[in-house]
Amino acid sequence: KIMKIGKSKKHNKIGQANFSTKITHRNLCFATTKDAQYTFACGFEDNSFVVWDIEKSKLHQGIHKHNDIVSCLALDEDVEKQRAILVTGSYDKSVMVWRVNINAKLRNANSKSRKKAHHRKGSTSSKMA
């Protein structure tokens, strides 16, 4: 799916949030992780920014910490350390810095598969006894 972002109210949404008409540089309102799993977006009338799960095509998380419209964001990733820093700026004249765990999905999947493998090994040996 491709998200349509236009001037009509019909296409000015990601999920339920309307894009603010105050935002003049919408290109500053989006960042995508290097693995293309998540997109961060801002510029919404409810003063939030969101994390969009690209694979599932749905909202992963909405964050409401600024007191005015979040007008820009930037993402800096360190793939080796599996960490990223997200910086958000708002018309309330504040800047917030967020630590982002960029490979949580991958680590959770690996952790679950390791637990299953460990559980299978344990149950196999107990059956043999």
What is the beta-strand fraction?
25-35%
For the secondary structure, the number of strands is 9
Compressed to H and E, one letter per element, the order equals: EEEEEEEEEH
Question: What gap, in angstroms, lies between the N and C termini?
Answer: 53 Å
- What's the mean pLDDT score? 74
Sheet with the most strands: spatial strand order: 3-4-5-6
The main β sheet shows up as: 4 strands, antiparallel
**Given the structure, what is the number of helices?**
1
Question: Which value, in Å, is the CA radius of gyration?
Answer: 19 Å
Task: Explain the overall architecture.
It is a single chain. The chain is of the alpha+beta class. The protein is 19% helix and 35% strand. The protein contains one helix and nine strands. The chain has one helix at 104-128, and strands spanning 13-14, 17-18, 30-32, 38-41, 49-53, 58-63, 70-78, 83-90, 95-100. The strands form three sheets. It has a four-stranded antiparallel sheet, with no helix packed on it. A three-stranded antiparallel sheet has the order 7-8-9, with no helix packed on it. A two-stranded antiparallel sheet has the order 1-2. A hairpin with a 4-residue loop joins strand 8 and strand 9 (95-100). The chain is globular, with a radius of gyration of 19 Å. The protein starts with 12 loop residues before the first strand and ends with a helix. 21% of the residues are buried. Residues 1-12, 107-114 and 123-129 have low confidence and may be disordered.
